[in-house]
Amino acid sequence: MNLSLCTITFRHELLSLAELTDWARANRFAGIEMWGGHARSLKHREIYDADWLKAKGMYVSMLSDYIDFTKCEADFLSAAEELLEMTTNWNCKKLRVFAGSKGSDVMPFHERVQLVIYLKQLCALAEARGIYVLVETHPNTFADSLRSTQWLLDEVGHDHLRLNFDVLHVWESGADPVEAFHKLEAQIMHVHLKNVSERSKLGVFAPGNVYSASGSREGMVSLFDGELDFQHFFDACDLEHLDASLEWFGRDIYAVLASDAAKLASLRGLARC
């Protein structure tokens, strides 16, 4: 397993990419998961590019952003090209998106149809660049359950549509993460790792709270201290061939990430210690 650091973790920190990369390299991270907002801000900073990152012994494992699947086709395709260009510029092969912004049980039929059509178009454009589109398993999107995620993969039916498997959100849906991982394993290319102190605190990960500098962080805990048993998950699932990101949104960034990365390094299958 190749472990990545998410730049979104530092959304409220005053830190350069050089500082972040040096710290990540020194703390057992092999790659960087680049947030789309950060990729946009770096587009005109010529010093920072894929070659610069490679010289530091690291790479962008995934570019994570969002795209509106309810736009008109011209606007959607324009947004898709921008995302794919940013992904290409970092010599990255994975683009993470959300499957809309409504849950599978409430998404209107016409939006579901358009989601499938647009995902097919996005995957075709991505394939031409050698990029895979990864839909994240996430609440309040169409990929909010095992059933709806499998349906979406089947309906789109494109080899360049894959999954970013967020273990906690799969557990949040009521599914067994181990069983879900085994059922979806052929389509999983990346894994998100985070935990929560108890199920009743899952709301702390709502986007509106996470992206607020003054939002609550109550319930965010290090990976092996939460209600979800990650030791069991790692024992039962083979992640050796995958990239995984520690997705930390809480406080004490450096201490928590360094500790979790060290614990993960002690597990069999982590690429670098």
UniProtKB/TrEMBL annotation:
Protein name as annotated: Sugar phosphate isomerase/epimerase family protein
Signal peptide range: none
SUPFAM superfamilies: Xylose isomerase-like (SSF51658)
Example GO molecular function: isomerase activity
Domain Xylose isomerase-like TIM barrel, first and last residues per copy: 23-252
Pfam families: AP_endonuc_2 (PF01261)
Organism: Rubritalea spongiae
Keyword entries, A-Z: Isomerase
InterPro entries for this protein: IolE/XylAMocC-like, Xyl_isomerase-like_sf, Xyl_isomerase-like_TIM-brl
